[in-house]
Structure formats: C-alpha cells, structure tokens
C-alpha cells in the first residue's frame, strides 16, 4: 500500500501523535483536500508482544478496553514531507483532534512504568480528490518530533537523555529527575513522558543564555532504597550513581559549575531534596515539585545546610498522592524558621471551586507559570516579579556552604 509518517508533539501529559503525513502517488492541490477525505484507524500495541493493549479509557479507572479505534481529523492540507503547507504537493498532512483523545498518546502505562507503545495506523481515502481514490496508507515510514531537536540519548552509570544548547562556551546545566512512572529502560521517557522538553524551548533557554538539560532515568524509582518498594526511609540506592553521572557529564561537557540546577517531580522531587541534603553547596539552585522526602527524615543538621540553598518548592494543597503537610510544608516552615534567605514555595490553592491540580503540579511548573510565594505575593529578583525559571537562572553556587 502507501506510506505514512507520524509527527509527535510533547505536551503536559507527554508524547502524543498530533499529525499524520501521507505520501501520495501523485501531486494534489490544497483546494482539493479536506478533512472528510480520510478515515483514520489506529491500534495501539505492546511493543514486546505485538498484542493490542488493554487499557482504561481514563488512567485511574479499573475497567480496560482494547486500545484501538478511529481518530478524528481536525484539518487536512497538501504539504511538503515535513508537514509544512504547500499549494501543490506530493504529501498530505492530517492534523488530528487531540482533546480527550487517548488513542493519540504515544506513551501509556504498561505494567509498572510508562513506555512508548507501537501505534499502527491505517488511513483510508474515503473521498475522491485529484483523480485519486481508494488509497490506503498503512506502511509506517518514520516519525518526527520537532520539540526534541537537540536531544540525544546515552548510557553511563544510568541511562539518560540530554539537550545541547546552540550557544558555545561554558553553559549552565539544568537537571530534571523524573517521577515514578517514568522509570524503566527507555531514556526518552525521562524527557518525553512529561513536558520536560519545554526546558529546551527558546523561552526557557533565553533565561539562561543557553543551557544543557540532563534527564537521567533509573530502572525502578528514585525512592527505591533497595527494597524496590515505596517507603519512608528517605534513602535511595541510586544516590551515588546519580552523582557519578552528573560528575561525568560535567567533565565531558563545557559546564559552568557555578550554575548547576536540579529539580524534578514527585519521586524526582524526593531525589532533588536527597541530593541537596547529601551534597550541600554543589547545586546553584533547586526546584522540587510535589517532592516526596518526608519531613520526619530531614535532620536538624540537614536544615542547617538547606537553609543556605536556593530552593523553590512547588506543591498543590489537594495533592492526594504526596501529602504536602508531611513533606513540603513542614520542611519549608522549618527552613524559614531557621533563617532561610532564598527559599520560596508556590503552594497552589486548587481547592474547589478552583481547577484541580492535585498531584500534577509539574504541569504549571514546567509551563513556567509559577510566580507566587507561600504568602501569595510574587517572588522578586532585584525588585522585579519573576517566574520560577527566571528566578532559577539568576542563582549561583553558594560558596559559603
């Protein structure tokens, strides 16, 4: 039959296929094509077994269904091979409706972790145009993802993905530590399972004058103390491996060691706090989101060093997965009581009738929408209100620690 390409976008909830690019047997005119010309069917399969996945329609529901069906086309137009519109072309791009469309997701939770699934499409021409009829596109020819331009994958003590800035010379390093669902054996999940690629967007990069982004991945979870279970010990079996990876990456890239930043969500927020406690003064700033290091395991000695760190906490009041009253809130209050000078906390009030954020505070976090401090007032740098990543870019290593 005929070939098609997929285009993957990375948004709040990870990678999703938002466009299909079809290779025509002959040229067509943009005036001949509309969204009614094609029927789009997809089967989402387990990459290991080839079987159609059985998944809930909403992630928290128990009942499962075959993950296959028809997707809705938003618009169609002739294009070049990259999906750019042209008046007359040998390709047709279908932009897909994404709202509420779980069949468009390129990543799903299979077993314990999120993985990339095999999305097999069959696009059938159901309306004649340009003298062509009855075309079927079911031969996958490749995928493109413009948001991951500049990202590469590698393996060291841990697998990881990383972004290289265009700017030359010594550059800052932003580290992102993934949540529990993004563990496993595919480092792409560490930066495509959530909107981590926004850290390589022009907006965020401009704050730092160009920065490397490092997204390590662990086989299980950062909270794993060796038991492979969630617990309250506050220890991680991956601490030394993570520090080794960071040191190795710094040694092999032109990194400004006065501007190394660390953050992450949930499990990754836990590990952010663990690294701050265990390596005081190493990081220039930190941005733990819905962090899961219980306050009960943070010692007074830890507080004495943490108070000198540059930290911006993010957590939602209604988080039902990681209770902020056991983690971020008491730790922040202890730090302020100890005299912390540059510790901030966006405590998202998502109680009804406000829109619920719950555990997903990294959505506004990674969109760089956090601006308010614990008291509801804006965070200031030199008297000017700033966003989280604007603030982070101003931070430098604290030599006094």
Topology order in helix (H) and strand (E) letters: EEEEEEEEEEEEEEEHHEHEHEHEHEHEEH
How many H/I helical runs? 8
- Stretches where pLDDT is under 50 for at least 5 consecutive residues are none
Radius of gyration: 23 Å
The oligomeric state is single chain
Mean pLDDT: 95
Helix content: 10-25%
- Structural class label: alpha/beta
Query: In the residues, how many domains can be counted?
Result: 2
Q: How many beta-strand elements?
A: 22
Query: CATH class of the largest domain, anyone?
Result: Alpha Beta
CATH architecture label of the largest domain: 3-Layer(aba) Sandwich
Within CATH, the superfamily of the largest domain carries the name Alpha/Beta hydrolase fold, catalytic domain
Q: CA-to-CA gap between the ends?
A: 65 Å
Main sheet overview: 8 strands, mixed
Task: Enter the CATH topology name of the largest domain.
Answer: Rossmann fold
Strand order of the largest sheet: 6-3-11-12-1-2-8-7
Shape designation: elongated
Into which percentage range does the β-strand content fall? 25-35%
Textual characterization of the structure:
- The chain is α/β, with parallel strands linked by helices and 401 residues long.
- The protein folds into two domains: 2-144, Immunoglobulin-like, CATH 2.60.40.2180; 147-393, Alpha/Beta hydrolase fold, catalytic domain (Rossmann fold, 3-Layer(aba) Sandwich), CATH 3.40.50.
- The chain has helices at residues 188-192, 202-208, 239-252, 267-278, 300-306, 328-337, 362-366, 388-393; strands spanning 2-11, 14-29, 38-45, 54-55, 65-66, 68-71, 73-79, 88-96, 107-110, 113-116, 118-125, 136-144, 151-155, 159-163, 171-177, 212-217, 255-265, 285-289, 311-316, 343-348, 380-381, 384-385.
- The strands form five sheets. The chain has an eight-stranded mixed β-sheet with strand order 6-3-11-12-1-2-8-7, with no helix packed on it.
């Amino acid at each position: 039959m005929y070939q098609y390409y997929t285009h993957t976008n990375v948004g709040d909830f990870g990678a999703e296929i938002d466009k299909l690019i079809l290779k025509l047997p002959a040229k067509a005119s943009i005036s001949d094509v509309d969204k009614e010309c094609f029927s789009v069917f997809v089967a989402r399969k387990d990459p290991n077994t080839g079987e159609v996945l059985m998944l809930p329609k909403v992630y928290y529901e128990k009942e499962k269904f075959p993950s296959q069906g028809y997707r809705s086309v938003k618009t169609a137009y002739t294009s070049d091979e990259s999906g750019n519109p042209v008046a007359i072309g040998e390709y047709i791009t279908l932009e897909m409706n994404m709202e509420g469309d779980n069949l468009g997701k390129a990543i799903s939770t299979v077993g314990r972790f999120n993985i990339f699934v095999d999305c097999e499409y069959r696009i059938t021409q159901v309306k004649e145009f340009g003298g062509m009829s009855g075309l079927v596109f079911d031969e996958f020819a490749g995928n493109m993802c413009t948001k991951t331009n500049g990202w590469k994958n590698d393996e060291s003590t841990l697998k990881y993905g990383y972004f290289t800035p265009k700017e030359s010379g010594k550059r800052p390093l932003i580290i992102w530590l993934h949540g529990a669902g993004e563990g496993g054996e595919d480092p792409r999940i560490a930066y495509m399972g959530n909107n981590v690629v926004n850290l390589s967007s022009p907006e965020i990069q401009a704050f730092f004058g160009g920065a490397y982004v490092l997204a390590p991945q662990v086989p299980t979870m950062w909270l794993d103390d060796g038991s492979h279970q969630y617990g309250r010990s506050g220890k991680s079996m991956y601490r030394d491996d993570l520090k080794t990876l960071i040191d190795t990456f710094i040694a092999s890239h032109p990194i400004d060691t006065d501007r190394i930043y660390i953050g992450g969500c949930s499990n990754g927020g836990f590990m952010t706090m663990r690294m701050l406690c265990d390596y005081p003064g190493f990081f220039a700033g930190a941005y733990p989101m819905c962090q899961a290091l219980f306050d009960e395991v943070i010692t007074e000695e830890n507080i004495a060093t943490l108070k000198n760190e540059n930290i911006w906490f993010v957590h939602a009041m209604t988080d039902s997965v990681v209770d902020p009253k056991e983690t971020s809130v008491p730790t922040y209050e202890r730090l302020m009581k100890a005299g912390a000078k540059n510790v901030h906390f966006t405590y998202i009030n998502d109680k009804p009738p406000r829109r619920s954020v719950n555990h997903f505070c990294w959505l506004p976090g990674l969109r760089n929408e956090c601006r308010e401090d614990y008291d509801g007032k804006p965070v200031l740098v030199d008297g000017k209100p700033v966003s989280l990543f604007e603030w982070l870019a101003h931070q430098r290593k604290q030599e006094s620690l």
